[in-house]
Amino acid sequence: MVQSLRSKFKEVAHIVPVRSADGKFLHEVLKEVIFGLEKIGYKVVCVVTDNNKINRKAMEHFDLSSPTCSSSETRFVYEHPCDPARPLFFVIDPVHILKCIRNNWLNQSNDQRCFFFFSRWIQNTQPSGAC
């Protein structure tokens, strides 16, 4: 999906069958889409994904193509494939992050369904008996 930062413009750029996708394949498709968009005048600023392992692997391949970068750490800024002087940002969609937090919270082994870290703060600000 291509989306403008300044207007309401949105358009599907490419559809990838999930069964056949791996990090390297998705990286190649992503590079193709970025090159195509830049060629027709768009300026690609960032790639927004959920926190899926395949999506992270696809972005890590931008690291591997740069000789100055180490692939051992997660990064959020990469060298732009069309213009090395510009950054290409990697953004994990906050809605998916909140969904992961919620799912992990619901799958906790404590039967009170309270976050352990925030439980003291919540108990001090909520009426007695509330989580």
Automatic annotation (TrEMBL):
<dbReference type="Pfam" id="PF21787">
    <property type="entry name" value="TNP-like_RNaseH_N"/>
</dbReference>
<feature type="domain" description="Transposable element P transposase-like RNase H">
    <location>
        <begin position="1"/>
        <end position="62"/>
    </location>
</feature>
<dbReference type="InterPro" id="IPR048365">
    <property type="entry name" value="TNP-like_RNaseH_N"/>
</dbReference>
<protein>
    <recommendedName>
        <fullName>Transposable element P transposase-like RNase H domain-containing protein</fullName>
    </recommendedName>
</protein>
